[in-house]
What we know:
By secondary structure, the chain is mainly β. It has one helix spanning 8-30; strands spanning 50-62, 66-70, 74-78, 83-96, 101-117, 121-124, 127-131, 136-150, 153-165, 184-196, 201-222, 227-249. A hairpin with a 4-residue loop joins strand 11 and strand 12 (227-249). The longest helix is centred in the first third of the chain and has 23 residues, at 8-30. It is elongated, with a radius of gyration of 39 Å.
Amino acid sequence: MTRRPMPPAKSGLFSGFLGCLLAGSACAADLPRRAAPPPPPLPPAFTWTGFYVGANAGYGFRGGSSRYSDATYGTVTESGGKGGFVGGGQIGYNYQITPGSGWVLGAEADLQATGFGRRGDGTVGATPYYGVAPSLDWYGTLRGRVGYAFDRWLVYGTGGFAYGGGSRSPYASAYPYTLPDTTRLGYAAGAGIEYALTDHVSVKVEGLYVDLGKQGTGTTVYDATVPAYYGTGRSESGFGVVRGGLNYRF
Protein backbone atom coordinates (compact mmCIF):
# COMPACT_ATOMS: atom_id res chain seq x y z
CA MET A 1 0.00 0.00 0.00
CA THR A 2 1.44 3.37 -1.06
CA ARG A 3 1.52 6.19 1.71
CA ARG A 4 0.22 9.43 0.30
CA PRO A 5 2.35 12.49 0.99
CA MET A 6 0.94 15.09 3.53
CA PRO A 7 -0.51 18.13 1.83
CA PRO A 8 1.68 21.25 2.10
CA ALA A 9 -0.86 23.15 4.22
CA LYS A 10 -1.12 20.41 6.85
CA SER A 11 2.65 19.93 6.80
CA GLY A 12 3.16 23.61 7.57
CA LEU A 13 0.68 23.53 10.42
CA PHE A 14 2.32 20.49 11.98
CA SER A 15 5.78 22.01 11.67
CA GLY A 16 4.59 25.25 13.30
CA PHE A 17 2.90 23.39 16.15
CA LEU A 18 6.05 21.34 16.78
CA GLY A 19 8.14 24.50 16.76
CA CYS A 20 5.87 26.17 19.29
CA LEU A 21 6.15 23.16 21.59
CA LEU A 22 9.91 23.17 21.38
CA ALA A 23 10.09 26.92 21.88
CA GLY A 24 7.74 26.72 24.85
CA SER A 25 9.86 24.06 26.52
CA ALA A 26 12.96 26.18 26.05
CA CYS A 27 11.22 29.28 27.40
CA ALA A 28 9.89 27.36 30.40
CA ALA A 29 13.40 26.14 31.12
CA ASP A 30 14.60 29.75 31.20
CA LEU A 31 11.92 30.91 33.66
CA PRO A 32 13.10 31.42 37.29
CA ARG A 33 11.95 28.78 39.73
CA ARG A 34 10.09 29.75 42.91
CA ALA A 35 12.10 28.07 45.67
CA ALA A 36 11.11 28.23 49.37
CA PRO A 37 13.10 30.91 51.30
CA PRO A 38 15.82 29.57 53.62
CA PRO A 39 14.79 29.29 57.29
CA PRO A 40 15.93 32.18 59.53
CA PRO A 41 19.13 31.53 61.49
CA LEU A 42 18.64 30.24 65.04
CA PRO A 43 19.37 32.74 67.81
CA PRO A 44 22.60 32.06 69.71
CA ALA A 45 22.17 29.87 72.80
CA PHE A 46 21.92 31.81 76.06
CA THR A 47 25.04 31.66 78.22
CA TRP A 48 25.75 32.61 81.83
CA THR A 49 29.43 33.28 81.10
CA GLY A 50 30.64 36.72 82.13
CA PHE A 51 31.26 39.19 84.95
CA TYR A 52 28.38 40.63 86.97
CA VAL A 53 27.66 43.11 89.76
CA GLY A 54 24.52 43.45 91.82
CA ALA A 55 22.71 44.26 95.05
CA ASN A 56 20.75 42.19 97.55
CA ALA A 57 18.56 42.52 100.62
CA GLY A 58 16.94 40.06 102.98
CA TYR A 59 16.52 38.80 106.50
CA GLY A 60 19.13 37.42 108.87
CA PHE A 61 18.41 35.44 112.00
CA ARG A 62 20.54 34.09 114.78
CA GLY A 63 20.48 30.33 115.13
CA GLY A 64 22.83 29.83 118.05
CA SER A 65 22.80 30.73 121.72
CA SER A 66 25.06 32.34 124.30
CA ARG A 67 26.03 30.66 127.56
CA TYR A 68 27.46 32.49 130.54
CA SER A 69 28.54 31.16 133.91
CA ASP A 70 29.89 32.54 137.17
CA ALA A 71 30.14 31.48 140.82
CA THR A 72 27.41 33.83 142.01
CA TYR A 73 24.66 33.45 139.44
CA GLY A 74 25.35 30.02 138.01
CA THR A 75 24.82 29.34 134.33
CA VAL A 76 22.78 31.63 132.10
CA THR A 77 21.73 30.63 128.58
CA GLU A 78 20.54 33.27 126.17
CA SER A 79 18.68 31.60 123.30
CA GLY A 80 19.11 32.58 119.66
CA GLY A 81 16.41 33.58 117.23
CA LYS A 82 16.99 37.33 117.10
CA GLY A 83 16.74 38.56 113.53
CA GLY A 84 16.78 41.65 111.39
CA PHE A 85 17.63 43.29 108.10
CA VAL A 86 20.68 42.35 106.05
CA GLY A 87 21.69 43.90 102.74
CA GLY A 88 24.60 44.82 100.53
CA GLY A 89 26.25 44.19 97.18
CA GLN A 90 28.05 41.44 95.27
CA ILE A 91 30.44 41.01 92.36
CA GLY A 92 31.30 37.77 90.58
CA TYR A 93 32.12 35.80 87.46
CA ASN A 94 30.43 32.77 85.86
CA TYR A 95 31.77 30.36 83.26
CA GLN A 96 29.26 28.09 81.51
CA ILE A 97 30.92 24.99 80.09
CA THR A 98 28.16 24.33 77.52
CA PRO A 99 25.90 27.22 76.36
CA GLY A 100 22.18 26.66 76.64
CA SER A 101 22.12 23.94 79.29
CA GLY A 102 25.03 22.60 81.29
CA TRP A 103 27.38 23.11 84.21
CA VAL A 104 28.26 26.61 85.39
CA LEU A 105 31.31 27.39 87.53
CA GLY A 106 31.83 30.72 89.25
CA ALA A 107 33.13 32.83 92.12
CA GLU A 108 31.41 35.59 94.09
CA ALA A 109 32.39 38.14 96.74
CA ASP A 110 29.88 40.13 98.75
CA LEU A 111 29.82 42.70 101.55
CA GLN A 112 26.78 43.07 103.84
CA ALA A 113 25.47 45.35 106.55
CA THR A 114 23.46 43.72 109.35
CA GLY A 115 20.74 44.88 111.69
CA PHE A 116 20.54 41.87 113.97
CA GLY A 117 23.96 41.08 115.44
CA ARG A 118 23.79 43.31 118.51
CA ARG A 119 24.74 42.42 122.05
CA GLY A 120 22.21 40.48 124.09
CA ASP A 121 20.57 41.69 127.28
CA GLY A 122 18.54 39.69 129.78
CA THR A 123 17.92 38.98 133.41
CA VAL A 124 19.15 36.50 135.98
CA GLY A 125 16.15 36.22 138.25
CA ALA A 126 15.28 39.88 138.86
CA THR A 127 18.84 41.09 138.21
CA PRO A 128 19.54 42.60 134.78
CA TYR A 129 22.64 41.61 132.90
CA TYR A 130 24.21 43.12 129.80
CA GLY A 131 26.22 41.25 127.24
CA VAL A 132 29.65 42.67 126.53
CA ALA A 133 30.53 40.63 123.43
CA PRO A 134 31.23 42.71 120.31
CA SER A 135 28.27 43.32 118.02
CA LEU A 136 28.25 42.13 114.41
CA ASP A 137 27.64 45.22 112.28
CA TRP A 138 28.83 43.84 108.94
CA TYR A 139 30.16 40.72 107.28
CA GLY A 140 31.45 39.57 103.91
CA THR A 141 32.07 36.32 102.06
CA LEU A 142 34.30 35.03 99.28
CA ARG A 143 32.70 31.90 97.81
CA GLY A 144 32.87 29.49 94.92
CA ARG A 145 29.70 28.54 93.01
CA VAL A 146 28.79 25.34 91.16
CA GLY A 147 25.49 25.18 89.31
CA TYR A 148 23.53 23.67 86.47
CA ALA A 149 21.71 25.83 83.93
CA PHE A 150 18.42 25.05 82.22
CA ASP A 151 18.61 27.76 79.58
CA ARG A 152 17.78 30.94 81.57
CA TRP A 153 17.35 29.14 84.90
CA LEU A 154 20.39 28.46 87.09
CA VAL A 155 20.35 26.27 90.21
CA TYR A 156 23.55 26.40 92.25
CA GLY A 157 25.34 25.61 95.49
CA THR A 158 27.93 27.89 97.05
CA GLY A 159 30.49 27.88 99.85
CA GLY A 160 33.68 29.51 101.03
CA PHE A 161 35.33 31.97 103.42
CA ALA A 162 33.47 34.46 105.64
CA TYR A 163 34.60 37.36 107.80
CA GLY A 164 32.90 40.06 109.84
CA GLY A 165 33.29 42.77 112.41
CA GLY A 166 31.51 45.33 114.52
CA SER A 167 31.76 47.49 117.59
CA ARG A 168 32.32 46.87 121.27
CA SER A 169 29.58 47.04 123.86
CA PRO A 170 29.40 50.31 125.88
CA TYR A 171 29.89 48.12 128.97
CA ALA A 172 33.11 46.56 127.68
CA SER A 173 35.38 49.30 129.05
CA ALA A 174 34.25 48.52 132.62
CA TYR A 175 34.47 44.75 132.17
CA PRO A 176 37.52 43.32 134.01
CA TYR A 177 38.02 40.27 131.77
CA THR A 178 39.66 40.03 128.36
CA LEU A 179 37.28 40.26 125.43
CA PRO A 180 37.93 39.09 121.87
CA ASP A 181 38.74 41.37 119.00
CA THR A 182 35.81 42.67 116.99
CA THR A 183 37.04 40.99 113.77
CA ARG A 184 35.69 37.49 113.19
CA LEU A 185 36.58 34.73 110.72
CA GLY A 186 34.65 31.66 109.60
CA TYR A 187 32.84 30.07 106.67
CA ALA A 188 29.64 30.38 104.63
CA ALA A 189 27.63 27.79 102.69
CA GLY A 190 24.27 27.73 100.95
CA ALA A 191 22.29 27.39 97.73
CA GLY A 192 20.17 29.46 95.41
CA ILE A 193 18.25 29.79 92.16
CA GLU A 194 18.67 32.53 89.55
CA TYR A 195 16.66 33.52 86.48
CA ALA A 196 17.83 35.71 83.58
CA LEU A 197 15.12 38.25 82.72
CA THR A 198 17.17 39.53 79.77
CA ASP A 199 20.61 38.80 78.34
CA HIS A 200 22.08 41.15 80.98
CA VAL A 201 19.70 41.29 83.97
CA SER A 202 18.93 38.40 86.32
CA VAL A 203 17.17 37.96 89.67
CA LYS A 204 17.97 35.42 92.37
CA VAL A 205 16.82 34.00 95.70
CA GLU A 206 19.53 32.61 97.96
CA GLY A 207 19.92 31.07 101.40
CA LEU A 208 23.22 31.09 103.32
CA TYR A 209 24.46 29.85 106.65
CA VAL A 210 27.36 31.92 108.00
CA ASP A 211 29.45 30.75 110.95
CA LEU A 212 31.98 33.21 112.36
CA GLY A 213 33.16 30.99 115.22
CA LYS A 214 32.45 30.99 118.91
CA GLN A 215 33.31 34.27 120.56
CA GLY A 216 34.69 34.58 124.05
CA THR A 217 32.34 36.89 125.92
CA GLY A 218 31.14 37.86 129.34
CA THR A 219 28.22 39.21 131.33
CA THR A 220 27.99 42.49 133.16
CA VAL A 221 25.68 41.79 136.11
CA TYR A 222 24.33 44.61 138.24
CA ASP A 223 23.23 43.67 141.75
CA ALA A 224 20.75 45.68 143.80
CA THR A 225 23.28 48.09 145.27
CA VAL A 226 26.73 48.20 143.67
CA PRO A 227 27.59 47.20 140.08
CA ALA A 228 29.57 43.99 140.07
CA TYR A 229 31.13 42.25 137.07
CA TYR A 230 30.94 38.51 136.82
CA GLY A 231 31.24 35.68 134.42
CA THR A 232 32.94 34.39 131.33
CA GLY A 233 31.45 32.35 128.52
CA ARG A 234 31.10 31.64 124.81
CA SER A 235 28.69 33.11 122.30
CA GLU A 236 27.62 31.28 119.15
CA SER A 237 28.18 33.48 116.08
CA GLY A 238 26.37 31.37 113.47
CA PHE A 239 23.38 32.84 111.68
CA GLY A 240 21.21 32.21 108.63
CA VAL A 241 20.37 34.60 105.80
CA VAL A 242 17.57 34.48 103.24
CA ARG A 243 17.87 37.17 100.59
CA GLY A 244 16.83 38.25 97.13
CA GLY A 245 19.17 39.87 94.66
CA LEU A 246 19.48 41.61 91.29
CA ASN A 247 22.52 41.14 89.02
CA TYR A 248 23.69 42.96 85.91
CA ARG A 249 25.90 40.83 83.65
CA PHE A 250 28.46 42.29 81.23
